[in-house]
TrEMBL record:
Superkingdom as given in the UniProt entry: Bacteria
Start and end residues of each EAL domain: 24-275
UniProt-recorded name of the protein: Diguanylate cyclase/phosphodiesterase
């Protein structure tokens, strides 16, 4: 049900956007203004130990509420920002706020920020992250950076150098949406990666499709063999959770079964109470 609502919203929005070029231009100029004014916000989605007893880190997810159209899905506005060359301004906003918000949580809890492929091609990202860490005083080990597999394919030399630099400064690198790109696995060995986030498409039908489940299990075991942590994303139902736990096939779990994205203050409450509570937000 949560999924239907979540995807339903995004799909309708995407369908509406398509073929409406003028609308897109208007949305772009509104987004440019919103970025300029810092008129974005963040929601955080916790990643839990598989038994759900403890929050280990929280993913920062950018939110933009358009004055007339309401919440715009991040998949949409991130792409618009990339097209306008403004995505690194969003990253700067997110990483700054994420560092500050992380300091309001218990010291064992990390924060994870998504980077755009364009951040990795530019020359500013190391300085942006370093500045956010310096001005907040956050321990770099509490800042994780998520990049997608496809980021690793264009300009691999540049991207490797940037990731190495970030890693050397103490941050952890996570591969997001793992298993959906077209890259070879050899980068797992070559890059300073310490976390993989198995894409939610590997979880969707595990309880009806045993080959799918074996793919998930094999992927998580591959990660463990390389001493990487495996986060399983998009766990929505009690059945999925039970199957994952019966076979010990996740190091961390992120999904609606435990918690949807929520404000930073709700993360603080959640960590204080130790157990997940129902929250309102089901994504934009
Ligand atoms: P992602 O990084 O893979 O983030 C996870 C997305 O999956 C989030 O959607 C989250 O709400 C959703 N999700 C979490 N658990 C479940 C679940 O159990 N079931 C389902 N169906 N979905 C679940 P959201 O917030 O709409 O973000 C979508 C994508 O937008 C993100 O995917 C990321 O690629 C991008 N994004 C969001 N914030 C940022 C940002 O600050 N910077 C960049 N570069 N990209 C961002
Ligand atoms: Mg992510
Ligand atoms: Mg993801
Ligand atoms: Mg994703």
């Amino acid at each position: 049900e949560a999924k239907a609502r979540n995807n339903g919203g995004c799909t309708a929005f995407e369908a509406e956007m398509e073929g409406r070029y003028l609308d897109r231009q208007k949305l772009k100029s509104d987004l440019r203004e919103a970025i300029g004014r810092g008129d974005l916000s963040l929601a955080y989605q916790p990643m839990f130990t598989p038994d759900g007893s403890r929050v280990v880190s929280c993913e920062a997810l950018a939110r933009w509420t358009h004055p007339e159209r309401g919440p715009v899905p991040p998949d949409i506005f991130i792409q618009l920002a990339e097209e306008m060359g403004l995505v690194t301004d969003i990253t700067r906003f997110v990483v700054r706020h994420a560092c500050r918000d992380c300091l309001t949580w218990p010291a064992e809890v990390a924060v994870s920020v998504n980077l755009s492929v364009l951040d990795l091609h530019g020359d500013e990202i190391v300085a942006i992250v370093a500045e956010a860490l310096a001005e907040s005083g956050l321990n770099p080990a509490r800042l994780h950076l998520e990049v997608t597999e496809s980021c690793l394919m264009d300009e691999p030399v540049k991207v490797q150098a940037v990731l190495r630099e970030l890693r050397e400064r103490g941050m952890a690198i996570a591969i997001d949406d793992f298993g959906t790109g077209y890259s070879s696995l050899s980068y797992l060995d070559a890059l300073p990666v310490s976390i993989i986030k198995v894409d939610r498409s590997f979880v969707r039908d595990i309880h009806v499709n045993s080959r799918r489940f074996k793919l998930l299990l094999g992927t998580v075991n591959l990660a463990r063999a390389l001493e990487l942590k495996a986060v399983v994303e998009g766990v929505e139902t009690a059945e999925q959770l039970q199957l994952i736990n019966e076979h010990n096939c996740a190091d961390l779990i992120q999904g609606f079964v435990f918690a949807a994205p929520m404000p930073a203050s709700a993360v603080a409450v959640l960590c204080g109470h130790g157990m997940p509570e129902p929250v309102a937000e089901r994504t934009a």
